[in-house]
Predict the structure.
Amino acid sequence: MNRPMELQFQVECLQDVAVVNCSGRMVRGAALDQFRRRIEQLERVRVLVLDLSEVEQLDAGGLGTLLLVRRWATQKSAKLKLVNPPVFFRRVLDATHLTSVFEISSLKEAIGILRSKECPPTRFAVA
C-alpha cells in the first residue's frame, strides 16, 4: 500500500518574489510546522506564490497553516497567491468558505503577473 509522502517544499526567491513548490500531504505535523517557519523567515517579499499542484492531501492543520501564512503575508504587505491547487483542494476551500479569502490562479496567470513586474513601465524625461 502506497502511503502519500509528508509535505515536501522548495523555496525559490528571485528579487522580491518567492515561489514555494509544495508536494505531498499538507497535514498537521512537523513538516507543516517547518513549512510555516521557513516562510516566516523570508525577507523583503512582495509576492509569495505557493504552487500546490502536487499536494495530495489537506486537513484542518493545513488550512490553519495557510491562514497563518496569509496573515504573515498581510503583515509584510506581500501578496499571497495559491497556484494550481488540485480539484480536491479547491473543494475543501469551497466547503470551508475560504475560496474568497485566498487569491487562486493558474500557473500561466501567475507567470504573466510576474513577467509584467520584470519589465517596469518606460519613463520619459521631459526636457
Summary: The CA atoms of residues 55 and 99 lie 17 Å apart.
